[in-house]
Design goal:
Elements: H1 11-22, H2 28-35, H3 39-51, E1 71-79, H4 84-95, E2 100-105, E3 112-118, H5 120-131, E4 138-145
Antiparallel strand pairs: 1-3, 1-4, 2-3
Helix pairs in contact: 1-2, 2-3
Length: 158
């Protein structure tokens, strides 16, 4: 089964996804107990969800503040040109920037939305002046500093 063969999710699959999303370090035995299965069918379901691409990977969530990057900025970027080469160059450069947490190509007035971790206004200015503004094709940016995160995850509904 490949990513194009998305399985139908039943209530147990959804419980597995929610449990792993909350704590990806659960052992198979712990997960099985939480979702009401024995370990073998639980392991089979997790592997099926991984193979289908519903579970894309497991990550560690880092504490930005303890890393010296306590502030999150949302940067909208407008490009001068929209030819394939310009966009590819911009996208490749942005994906290599360690400050960038997420980057999206979007519809609307701006072409990209970037979420980045910075150390205050000085860190934000360094990101803009030393990195983003040096990329060819950037026409204009608009930035918002975030104040407080209300929700940072998504899990499937029951």
């Amino acid at each position: 089964m490949g990513p194009m063969d998305t399985p139908r999710l039943d209530a147990i699959d959804r419980r597995i996804l929610r449990a792993l999303h909350h704590n990806a370090r659960l052992t198979n035995a712990e997960l099985a107990e939480q979702v009401g299965l024995s370990p073998s069918p639980c392991w089979t379901r997790v592997k099926r969800l991984e193979q289908a691409g519903l579970i894309q990977g497991y990550v560690a969530i880092l504490d930005q503040a303890q890393l010296g990057l306590p502030d999150t900025v949302i940067i909208e970027v407008m490009m001068e040109r929209h030819d394939e080469e310009s966009l590819k160059r911009f996208e490749a450069a942005v994906t290599e920037m360690p400050e960038v947490i997420e980057a999206w190509l979007v519809t609307g007035e701006y072409d990209y939305v970037i979420k980045a971790a910075v150390g205050g206004t000085a860190g934000y200015e360094r990101l803009l002046r030393e990195k983003l503004y040096r990329l060819p094709g950037v026409r204009h940016t608009r930035t918002s500093f975030t104040l407080r995160c209300l929700k940072q995850s998504w899990t499937p509904s029951p």
